[in-house]
Amino acid sequence: MEKHNSMTSDVTHIKDEDDLVEFLDKEFSSVFSEGDSILVKMHMGEPGNRTHVTAQLAKKVIDVLESQGCRPFIFDSPVVYSSPRNNEAGYLESAARNGFTKDSVGVPIVISNRSETFKGELMAYELCSEPLEADGVLLLSHFKGHICSGMGGAIKNVGMGCMSKSTKGAIHTGGEPVYGDGCTECGACVENCPTDNIRLEKGRPFFDASWCPGCSNCIISCPENCISPKTAKFDFLLAEAATIALEKFGKSYAINVMQNMTQLCDCVADAGPVLADDSGFVCGADMVSVDIASLDILQRETGSKDRFAEYNKKSSYPHVEEAARLMGRDMEVTIKEIG
Ligand code: SF4
Ligand code: SF4
Fold first, then answer.
1. Backbone φ/ψ region at 303: left (φ over 0), alpha (ψ -120 to 50), beta
2. Which pLDDT value is given to residue 2?
3. Which residue's alpha carbon is nearest to atom 4 within ligand 2?
């Protein structure tokens, strides 16, 4: 019988790594089939980063897939900014420095910018070809803070991580501010810019475009609605890219790794302080549910409404809410606890 991506808001929170392996053994057999090529989408970290998902954990998950007769491989796309990871050779070298080689994980590691284009509401997205060609996609995402999306989890792993370099750039640029009339010089945009990039002068704000990652937080913060995005808010573009991609995947499954939950993402060598105790893994068939559940668990375990926003200023919620809205669902999830 053909197995499909089952959209369910049920997720499982597992504290222990051994329990995870046992759980995935049952779970994968209901999602993937023997002989399936499974693309394991993950971030292998900027050189020097020590808090990304490890090759050892990836290998454990890959071993479960292989034990069921699947044909897994690791995939990521090159980044658009200045980094050794902005081309295939450089990324493979960086991955090796961080412990990811064909020998260490036992499967090929593919880095590619090959893509196909799909139309969204306000822009077209170049979606990487490999996730479209694989029989299934497994999102193995590090749940941590992010300067543009507040939090980076499964949605970010798809909406940015499965896009071409050019689309990654377009999502960031599309979220940059354009100032209109009506500024009251209240200072909210200045205060809420994660990169301290805005100054008020002559009755209006100014920002340095060369230092703006397009997070759109100034737009969200302005009480007078006098700032607009170049294309659309970052959170909308990220969510739309992710939901378009998810529709095109044959089968998919998401695991959020709630370990080393740093202030910043794995794209930087020093991702800042760890903001919460390790809390295991959140697993489910739907990336939005897995991100919502991870935020709920973080809130419950830290007592903070939005732990990452305390450090990054940008809320973790807008891109998750946009993805939920685009998928015609609410923010409710049922979490089953193991361990
Ligand atoms: S988009 Fe983000 S980084 Fe850029 S100026 Fe606005 S708040 Fe600052
Ligand atoms: S938040 Fe809006 S009204 Fe306040 S200073 Fe910035 S642009 Fe002006």
1. left
2. 36
3. 186
The answer for residues whose C-beta is within 8 angstroms of residue 242's C-beta and 6 or more apart is 155, 156, 158, 159, 162, 287, 323
- Ligand 1 neighbourhood includes 151 CB (under 6 angstroms): no
- Are 49 and 84 in contact by the 8 Å Cβ rule? The answer is no
Return the pLDDT at 5: 43
DSSP category for residue 123: S
Ligand 1 site, residue 31, Cβ cutoff 6 A: no
Ligand 2 pocket, mutate which of 197, 206, 220, 224 (most atoms under 8 A from CB):
224
pLDDT in the model for residue 148:
97
Strand partners, 255: 140, 283
Question: Pocket of ligand 1, candidates 178, 179, 190, 198: which has the most ligand atoms within 8 Å of its Cβ, to mutate?
Answer: 198
CB 308, CB 35: distance < 8 Å: no
Domains for the chain: give ranges and CATH numbers. Answer: 10-170+233-338 (3.40.50), 176-229 (3.30.70.20)
In degrees, rounded to 5, the angle at the alpha carbon of residue 327 between the alpha carbons of residues 325 and 333 is 80
Q: What are phi and psi of 141, to 5 degrees?
A: -110, 140
Task: Measure the CA–CA gap between 331 and 318, rounded to whole angstroms.
Answer: 11
Instruction: Chunk the chain into consecutive blocks of 10 residues (it has 339) and report each block's average pLDDT, rounded to whole numbers.
Output: 50 97 96 98 95 98 98 96 92 96 97 98 98 98 98 98 98 96 94 95 87 95 96 98 96 98 95 97 97 98 97 97 96 95
Q: Which ligand has the nearest atom to the CA of 235?
A: 1
Q: What is the pLDDT of residue 177?
A: 96
Q: What separation in Å is there between the alpha carbon of 221 and the centre of ligand 2? A: 8
- Looking from the CA of 322 toward its CB, the CA atoms found within 13 Å total 22
The two beta strands, 115-119 and 124-128, are antiparallel
Q: Are 219 and 207 in contact (CB under 8 A)?
A: no
Which pair of structure tokens corresponds to residue 40? Answer: 């394991």
